[in-house]
Amino acid sequence: GYGNEAPPGLGAGAVVGARPGPTVPATAMRTTAAGRTLEIVAALGIATVQDLGRPGLMRLGVTPGGALDRRALVLGNRLLGNDPGAAALECAIAGPTLRFGADTLVVVAGADFGPRLDGADVSPWSPFIARAGTVLSFARPARPGTGLRCFVCLE
After folding, report:
1. What pTM does this model have?
2. Distance from CA of residue 49 to its chain's centroid?
3. Could you tell me which of 50, 62, 87, 90 has the fewest CB atoms within 10 Å of its CB?
């Protein structure tokens, strides 16, 4: 297992539910610290958990890492009232299918992959409530010129 660390890539069947600890700050995992889970039902592209990275640690051999579309991550988090650098699910090329284990306030930020909640369209860049058991899916993969990454930000 990965303990408190997220695996480098998340595939179908993964359940994201990290606990605060030495590698996961409590502020970055508010949602999962309350016992909520997010199940990855199907993974079509690449999905990783990203925050703003670890700037200033190159002298120790730690690359900054973090979200590739920093603006989308920060704006998505701000729409929810989160810390701008809070961790989110970064989806590249195509969005996964996700099932919520508890009522959760969500924003899908970044490239428009056509987010749908239980089959109904939801607007990117607009907060919505995903009730426990609902499924977030994406209608289309990234299109040329519209961006390659979206972020699923959770309150």
Report:
1. 0.76
2. 6
3. 62
